[in-house]
Every structure is written in structure tokens, then in C-alpha cells.
Amino acid sequence: MEKTFIMVKPDGVQRNLIGDIVSRFEKKGFKLAGGKLMSIPNALAEEHYGEHKERPFFGELVDFITSGPVFAMVWEGENVIATARQMMGATKPAEALPGTIRGDYGITVGKNVIHGSDSPESAEREINLFFDKEELVDYDKNDASWLY
Ligand code: DAT
Ligand code: MG
């Protein structure tokens, strides 16, 4: 089953949004495969956002994501990568539709509450960056037969 990397950013943690965000993915029907509260070391932040290294906001981005704890997760389910992106809403909260996480809770692009992998390749890369194999749990859930 497809897996994606989702992270409540430092603003979301400070604003008490971990529970709501976990709840949205749970209610949708996705399965939690791993989760942890953590501080991101600078080197990990730079690697995670490596694709933005040349962008003018890169320094700010790394400073922000290391400014406080994040809640890192792996969620599993059919089409979870693309569906999670839809649930998050557009990168700029001003363009994110109401009902999406960024649309409901964000105002500025710098503090947009949540990260989610944007492709199968980035999902695999980001899951491996943030989680050791033994931190991911493989288990059955009884709701599967009512979802699939
Ligand atoms: P996303 O997080 O939706 O995948 P992205 O990968 O393009 O968006 O950018 C990563 C993060 O960088 C984004 O969540 C917020 C920040 N960012 C993006 N564009 C920005 C901009 N123009 N100014 C400031 N920060 C920006
Ligand atoms: Mg991105």
C-alpha cells in the first residue's frame, strides 16, 4: 500500500493543531504507520528541503522548520500521496480552499502548518530521511474491509 510523509510544522505544533490534523487523516480512512514529536537538526532540514537550496527563501525555510518541534508521520492508504496533498491545500494559504488544512488554519506561505510529500519519489526519500525502518509499524486494521 502507498505511503506518504506528513509533518505538522512548528507553527502547527505551537498552535495545538496536531490532534486535528491526525484526526483528519484518521477519519479519511488512512492508516498511521509511524509518528513522532521531534526537533529537526539543521543538516536534516537542509537535506529535506534540498530542492529549494537556490531559492531566496531557503534560509528562512530552514530557520523556520528548525525553530521548534515538529510532528512527523507516515500515513498509508490507496492514493494517499495525492489525496494528502488535496487535504493540505495549496502551498500559499491565501490560495488554499476552505476545508483544506492550510485553507482553514494558515495565513502566510512561510507558516503554512503542514508538509506532505508531493510524489512517490519524494515520499520514499522523505520517509527514509525521517524514519528508521523499525519505527514504522506494519499491522492490519479492522476498518480496511469497510474502506476498500
Ligand atoms: P509545499 O510545501 O506545498 O510542497 P514547496 O515544496 O513549493 O511547497 O515549498 C516548500 C515550503 O517552502 C512551503 O511549504 C513554504 C515555503 N515556500 C514556498 N514558496 C515560498 C515563497 N515564495 N516564499 C516563502 N516561502 C515559500
Ligand atoms: Mg514541497
TrEMBL record:
<comment type="subunit">
    <text>Homotetramer.</text>
</comment>
<dbReference type="GO" id="GO:0006228">
    <property type="term" value="P:UTP biosynthetic process"/>
</dbReference>
<keyword id="KW-0808">Transferase</keyword>
<protein>
    <recommendedName>
        <fullName>Nucleoside diphosphate kinase</fullName>
        <ecNumber>2.7.4.6</ecNumber>
    </recommendedName>
</protein>
<keyword id="KW-0597">Phosphoprotein</keyword>
<feature type="modified residue" description="Phosphothreonine">
    <location>
        <position position="91"/>
    </location>
</feature>
<keyword id="KW-0067">ATP-binding</keyword>
<feature type="binding site">
    <location>
        <position position="85"/>
    </location>
    <ligand>
        <name>ATP</name>
    </ligand>
</feature>
<feature type="binding site">
    <location>
        <position position="112"/>
    </location>
    <ligand>
        <name>ATP</name>
    </ligand>
</feature>
<feature type="binding site">
    <location>
        <position position="9"/>
    </location>
    <ligand>
        <name>ATP</name>
    </ligand>
</feature>
<feature type="binding site">
    <location>
        <position position="91"/>
    </location>
    <ligand>
        <name>ATP</name>
    </ligand>
</feature>
<dbReference type="InterPro" id="IPR001564">
    <property type="entry name" value="Nucleoside_diP_kinase"/>
</dbReference>
<dbReference type="InterPro" id="IPR023005">
    <property type="entry name" value="Nucleoside_diP_kinase_AS"/>
</dbReference>
<keyword id="KW-0460">Magnesium</keyword>
<comment type="similarity">
    <text>Belongs to the NDK family.</text>
</comment>
<keyword id="KW-0547">Nucleotide-binding</keyword>
<dbReference type="Pfam" id="PF00334">
    <property type="entry name" value="NDK"/>
</dbReference>
<feature type="modified residue" description="Phosphoserine">
    <location>
        <position position="122"/>
    </location>
</feature>
<comment type="function">
    <text>(Microbial infection) Catalyzes the phosphorylation of dZDP to dZTP, when the bacterium is infected by a phage that produces the substrate for the synthesis of dZTP (2- amino-2'-deoxyadenosine 5'-triphosphate), which is then used by the phage as a DNA polymerase substrate.</text>
</comment>
<dbReference type="GO" id="GO:0006183">
    <property type="term" value="P:GTP biosynthetic process"/>
</dbReference>
<dbReference type="GO" id="GO:0005524">
    <property type="term" value="F:ATP binding"/>
</dbReference>
<dbReference type="GO" id="GO:0005737">
    <property type="term" value="C:cytoplasm"/>
</dbReference>
<keyword id="KW-0418">Kinase</keyword>
<dbReference type="InterPro" id="IPR036850">
    <property type="entry name" value="NDK-like_dom_sf"/>
</dbReference>
<feature type="active site" description="Pros-phosphohistidine intermediate">
    <location>
        <position position="115"/>
    </location>
</feature>
<feature type="binding site">
    <location>
        <position position="57"/>
    </location>
    <ligand>
        <name>ATP</name>
    </ligand>
</feature>
<dbReference type="GO" id="GO:0004550">
    <property type="term" value="F:nucleoside diphosphate kinase activity"/>
</dbReference>
<keyword id="KW-0546">Nucleotide metabolism</keyword>
<dbReference type="GO" id="GO:0046872">
    <property type="term" value="F:metal ion binding"/>
</dbReference>
<keyword id="KW-0479">Metal-binding</keyword>
<keyword id="KW-0963">Cytoplasm</keyword>
<dbReference type="InterPro" id="IPR034907">
    <property type="entry name" value="NDK-like_dom"/>
</dbReference>
<comment type="function">
    <text>Major role in the synthesis of nucleoside triphosphates other than ATP. The ATP gamma phosphate is transferred to the NDP beta phosphate via a ping-pong mechanism, using a phosphorylated active-site intermediate.</text>
</comment>
<dbReference type="GO" id="GO:0006241">
    <property type="term" value="P:CTP biosynthetic process"/>
</dbReference>
<feature type="domain" description="Nucleoside diphosphate kinase-like">
    <location>
        <begin position="1"/>
        <end position="138"/>
    </location>
</feature>
<feature type="binding site">
    <location>
        <position position="102"/>
    </location>
    <ligand>
        <name>ATP</name>
    </ligand>
</feature>
